Amino acid sequence: MKLLKNIVNKKEIILKNNLRKYRFFANEMSQKELSSKLQVSRQTIYSIEKSKFNPSVKLALRIAQLFERKVEDIFYLEEVNND
Question: How far is 67 from 78, CA to CA, in rounded Å?
């Protein structure tokens, strides 16, 4: 029923993140350094931070493990209007 309500109200649920906060502000790590640790491209890190790319579950878990956080600390869902 809630899914139907979201469709009727033209709301979209998107995956947002605090990756930059944990990467840069908490650990003073560059995108390049993080990408190297995770064995992905720097562009992948950039795209995740800008919410242009949703990481796989495996990558999200690896990111959380690297920062010693729960996945929910880094990634969260946000409802936005599509009016």
Answer: 22
